[in-house]
Design a protein that fits this description.
The complex is a heterodimer. By secondary structure, chain A is an alpha/beta fold. Chain A has twelve helices and 23 strands. Chain A starts with a helix and ends in a 5-residue tail after the last helix. In chain B, 27% of the residues lie in helices and 35% in strands. In chain B, helix 4 runs antiparallel to helix 9 and helix 11 packs antiparallel against helix 12. The chains are: A alpha/beta, B alpha/beta. Chains A and B meet through strand 22 and strand 23 of A and strand 20 and strand 21 of B.
């Protein structure tokens, strides 16, 4: 990895943008008319319009959160809440507009990869423009499409689950998303089906002042399993962008869902995301959540362990460079007996960067034999960096074993000395130690993501010594 | 928002007259301080579990301040119980009883001969105004609703001053007490340790067993000079109907060392702040505590380890056992300033939950702005391990006795951090008493 560090330039690699080719966008700012226009443009059923307008009311009533990161830099009136790109939904790579293809090519996405990717759902602005589901998945009855298509073509399943894990009045930004959502993925895995290849989606923001409000809904029926991967890169724009997603996962009896994210928004994006899963009897939900980009991220993937024997895992890694605040964490809420959860968080702050771990574990009174383990470690790379830990533990049942450990430290001088004494220069030594620190996270990623993450880390670490 | 907007003053007309009386009878800086505090208090709403992060898990909505009045005088049986407690733990200690109608002092000749001042805070304001003003400076008049109220309302109180390079030969035992239904008390301990001096101090909060509803709004302030050493014990054994809000704050100068030990056994509801401000390079604080909650007790501890100078060290260990429907809330913050390089700080909170219905919340937080540090925390909650119980029962110990041994062993792990052996033994005895099924909220009065 250290060799690659030298190949990469200091410029933000994905900080380019194409000529804006959007064909439909709402006016800046938000009003019931804008919400209605979005719904109308998408030809949505009446219930969805009502859902959106109700969510809009919740959004207007809710105050801004008084805790967490500083959100005062967001100008909500200076945002386009819906932008539809040119071209219709494509099934074949050849039909994707040339300029959009160029963007993907520069990101190094499909062509070569697509053959072994299960399906690539690339969100370009607010609509999915490219979509490819391998035939054999379709034969198994797996649905993998964008959420708008899900609403249109699978209305019964969609309506049964949509907004049930995260209701529109859950919090201010979930309400905002519920009012103006567009795109995102809809995944349905029938009972007993094991999807053995990860489903991947790439999200991008490409319009100046463009808020992206994608909505993802994943349902794994009894005994099924699925791994969904979401990776983000965004072009560098001068004015701040807002990204506010809602992700809902439902793992039925014995099902398994793993959701992997590597978030690398450019450093002007406010990333305020609500992610929550419900794990029924003997189900397993795993969030693998990496936060490298954005100006401010507030994201706390949650698992509600509702059925006996359910298991939750959250693996979180965060890197905050100069000017960044990663306020990330995890929540595990144990409602049923014999449930277990494990949270591991690793974070690194550099320059004026600030990482915060904010976690909540809760055990309800009737939950017997619950085991929870939380481990968070933070590295501070220089005198300007900051790290916070805010773990909340609420235990209302006697039959629990719960442990939480945290540490904050700097890169050990003895470790640096050990490496430099073997001829490795100090920059590389630091990069190696940082890579090692993230190892519990990186080893859970598919190969190509691990490589990409290590590259991004090496890039971020340049010039961190001296 | 609506109830808060009315302010505490309209909620508490009862204190209005008492506060105005105290302001009128004070002079100089104290009068200004009391007036400013009263103004701050009347402008502030009562803490709300909806609005204030500090109070999110501790609801004092049922505390109706207007129902309370200045404390009734405590009687001789209570004073005798206090003296007996002191005798059991540290018989040689000087005794200060901070209770209505006025502070009583049983001075030790040894301390007086060494130039150590042990007096009521009221007397100290007259005799040593500059010293008191200096010590009080580390608590703001309007820091919070209850600190503001305390600043306006305290009477009597205890003041201890240890001159430079003097080691107090015997401990000082300060008992804070009250009696009578709906009595309010504002316990005060102000301690000033000059450079290179040392002191062992006990603050003992207690009232008689029984259902008298008391309100205790307490502050202890310790200013510990360069190279000085303070051993501070805080025992809380209020009766079962007492509301207890307390701020215990120590400020440490260069190379100063604090050992603090707290034992929380009594009260219906406690909200206690344990704060240490490490202001001088090389300062060290070791804080430990035990808490045992029973019936419907609500015991809230909030700690602060503020590292504001380089090479400072702090440790905190709080072990809590809860049974019945008791609730423990622990929240703590290690706050490391940018200049506090080479900080070494650790917090641990271990909870043992003994029955269905008992709960323990734990929120150990870190906020770190220096990079060359070693900071961490550990928090656990669990129940009695069946293997441990089985091990003991296989050796002929009954199940109940096995559980008592396990709980005692769990708490002893923190109790060994109690600086004074006599005080540790007293706390151990009180815990055993409670483990055998007796309540330990309040002290039983002989002949009462």
């Amino acid at each position: 990895m250290t060799v690659q560090a030298h190949e990469l330039t200091k410029d933000y690699k994905f900080g380019f943008h194409d000529v804006d080719i959007s064909v439909f966008r709402t006016e800046k700012g938000l009003s019931p008319e804008v919400v209605a226009a979005i719904s109308d443009h998408k030809n949505e059923p009446e219930w969805m319009l009502k859902f959106r307008l109700k969510a809009y009311d919740h959004y207007m009533k809710r105050p801004m959160p008084a805790w967490g990161a500083d959100l005062s830099g967001i100008d909500f009136d200076d945002i386009y809440y819906y932008v539809k790109p040119a071209g219709e939904q494509s099934r074949s790579w050849d039909d994707v507009p040339e300029s959009i293809k160029n963007t993907f090519d520069r990101l190094g996405i499909p062509e070569a990869e697509r053959k072994f990717l299960a399906g690539v759902s690339a969100q370009y602005d607010s609509e999915v423009v490219y979509h490819n589901i391998r035939d054999d998945l379709e034969k198994l009855g797996v649905i993998f499409c964008d959420c708008d298509t899900g609403l249109r073509e699978h209305p019964d399943i969609f309506r049964k689950y949509f907004g049930t894990v995260i209701p529109p009045n859950d919090n201010k930004f979930a309400a905002l998303n519920s009012a103006v959502w567009s795109g995102g993925s809809f995944v349905y895995v029938p009972a007993g089906v094991k999807v053995d290849i990860p489903l991947q989606a790439y999200f991008r923001i490409n319009s100046d002042n463009m808020g992206q409000f994608e909505r993802t809904l994943i349902i794994a029926e009894e005994g099924s399993s699925v791994h969904y991967i979401e990776g983000c890169t965004a072009p560098n724009y001068s004015s701040d962008s807002l990204h506010s997603a809602v992700v809902e996962l439902i793992a039925h009896k014995g099902a398994k869902i793993r959701y992997t994210t590597i978030q690398n928004w450019s450093d002007n994006v406010y990333n305020l995301v609500t992610k929550r899963a419900i794990a029924h009897e003997n189900a397993t939900v795993e969030w693998v959540d990496g936060n490298l980009g954005s100006k401010v991220t507030m994201k706390y993937p949650a698992i509600y362990l509702m059925g006996e024997g359910a298991h939750g895992e959250v693996l979180s890694a965060a890197f905050a460079g100069p000017g960044q605040h990663q306020d990330a964490g995890a929540k595990c809420i144990h409602v049923a007996s014999n449930t277990t959860s494990n949270i591991v968080s690793r974070s690194i702050s550099k320059g004026t960067g600030r990482t915060s771990y904010r976690g909540h574990v809760k055990v309800y009174p009737k939950a017997q034999n619950v085991k929870i383990n939380v481990r968070c470690d933070a590295l501070l790379l220089d005198e300007e960096s900051q790290s916070d830990t805010y773990p909340y533990m609420d235990v209302e049942s006697p039959d629990v074993t719960i442990g939480h450990e945290a540490s904050v430290s700097k890169v050990g001088e003895d470790q640096i000395f050990y490496l430099t004494s073997r001829g490795i220069d100090e920059n590389e030594a630091t990069a190696l130690i940082v890579n090692g620190f993230f190892e519990p996270f990186v080893k859970e990623l598919p190969m190509e993501y691990a490589v990409e993450l290590n590259r991004l880390l090496a890039l971020s670490m340049e010039g961190s010594v001296g | 928002m609506i109830s808060g907007a009315t302010g505490a003053a309209t909620d508490a007309p009862a204190f209005e007259e008492a506060a105005q009386g105290r302001i009128a009878s004070s002079t100089g800086w104290l009068r200004d301080r009391r007036q400013a505090a009263w103004d701050a208090f009347t402008a502030m709403p009562m803490p709300s579990s909806q609005r204030d992060e500090d109070w999110r898990r501790t609801d004092i909505g049922k505390l109706k301040l207007p129902a309370f009045h200045d404390g009734d005088p405590v009687d001789d049986t209570l004073i005798a119980a206090i003296r007996e407690r002191r005798d059991r733990a540290t018989p040689r200690a000087a005794l200060v009883v901070d209770a209505a109608p006025h502070t009583r002092i049983e001075q030790s000749d040894e301390l007086a001969a060494a130039g150590i001042v042990v007096s009521s805070l009221e007397d100290a304001v007259r005799l040593h105004p500059a010293l008191v003003e200096r010590a009080l400076a580390s608590v703001g008049v309007g820091e919070s609703t209850f600190v503001a109220l305390w600043n306006a309302m305290w009477t009597g109180g205890a003041f201890i001053y240890v001159p430079r390079s003097v080691d107090a030969a015997v401990p000082v035992w300060v008992a804070h007490s009250a009696a009578g239904d709906h009595s309010a008390t504002f316990p005060a301990t102000v301690v000033l340790l000059e450079d290179n001096s040392s002191l062992t101090l006990v603050d003992d909060y207690l009232s008689a067993v029984g259902s008298d509803e008391l309100f205790s709004d307490a502050v202890t302030i310790a200013s510990v000079g360069r190279d000085a050493r303070l051993d501070h014990h805080v025992l809380q054994q209020w009766g079962e109907a007492t509301w207890h809000v307390a701020l215990h704050r120590s400020v440490l100068a260069q190379n100063a060392r604090l050992r603090m030990f707290g034992a929380t056994l009594g009260s219906r509801l406690q909200k206690a702040y344990w704060e240490v401000l490490l202001d001088g390079p090389g300062a060290q604080a070791e804080i430990a505590g035990v808490a045992f909650g029973d019936t419907t007790q609500h015991l809230d501890h909030q700690s602060l380890q503020a590292h504001r100078a380089p090479q400072t060290t702090s440790r905190l260990k709080l072990k809590v056992a809860v049974r019945g429907r008791a609730r423990s809330v622990y929240s703590g913050l290690i706050d490391v300033d940018r200049v506090a390089q080479q900080t070494d700080a650790y917090v641990q909170n271990r909870n043992l939950i003994l029955s269905n219905g008992a709960t323990a919340d734990s929120v150990p937080r870190l906020e770190i702005r220096a990079n060359d540090v070693r900071c961490g925390h550990g928090a656990t909650a669990g129940h009695i391990d069946d293997d441990h119980r089985f091990y003991l029962m296989a050796r002929g110990v009954t199940a109940d006795e096995a559980d008592r041994l396990i709980v005692r062993g769990f708490l002893d792990d923190a109790l060994v951090g109690c600086p004074d052996r006599g005080v540790a033994d007293l706390i151990g005895t009180l815990i055993d008493h409670e483990l055998q099924g007796n309540e330990v909220a309040g002290v039983a009065l002989v002949g009462a």
